[in-house]
Amino acid sequence: MAGFNKVVSSYDEACAGLKDNMTLMFGGFGLCGIPEGLIAKVQQLGVKDLTCISNNAGIDGFGLGLLLAKRQIKTMIASYVGENALFEQLLLSGEMEVKLTPQGTLAEKIRAGGAGIPAFYTPTGYATVVSEKKQNAVYNGKNYILEESLTADFSFIKAWKADSYGNLIYRKTAMNFNPIMATAGKITVAEVEEIVEPGELDPNFIHTPGIYVNRVILGKFEKRIERKMISK
Prior knowledge:
This protein is α/β, with parallel strands linked by helices. It has one domain (2-117, 149-218): 3-Layer(aba) Sandwich (Glutaconate Coenzyme A-transferase), CATH 3.40.1080.10. The protein has helices at 11-14, 36-45, 65-69, 85-93, 103-115, 178-183; strands at 23-26, 50-53, 73-78, 97-100, 119-122, 136-139, 142-148, 152-163, 168-169, 185-196, 215-218. Strands 1, 2, 3, 4, 8, 9, 10 and 11 form an 8-stranded mixed beta sheet that branches. The longest helix is centred in the middle third of the chain and has 13 residues, at 103-115. It is globular, with a radius of gyration of 18 Å.
């Protein structure tokens, strides 16, 4: 079964095939559950004119903020700007195309892409700027808009544990967008905190089956806190 081993030993192997003009998905919500090392490697490789799909774009100088600083992202598909001042600046100046999408719609667009569903109707965003240039329909007297699904050339995700076959377990809220993005990438790369042997993960608790994962790399995580709140 050695051919099923998906563990790679370097970030160069993990990102092999990455090129300019590709569409990339990045798991995480804020800084929770982001593939920190993979993002840093994408920055180091210098690929540009990327379309990036993520809930938001990290913070200034960390997470996807690294790619924004180097102007590697041409189009950002996200649900909000978050704590990133540079993201806001690039949006308002028009230097970077930004497609802001309601958070639930964004999640469903990714899930649908992974499921092979090309588009779906949703009432969210009807009669707002979200619905501009989109097909409308009425079902049972309620208005809907048609949203197209999303897929990517690479999905870069973060998990807690993996076995060498690529089966993944996420930890608590770090699960967020990672499971659905794992299904929607042509190549899915998982950066994980721990790798175990096949059979060591309880199959009842596996969140992403290895069939969706192409590469696994053991990462080192800073796990920076996006906004620290302490009592006086």
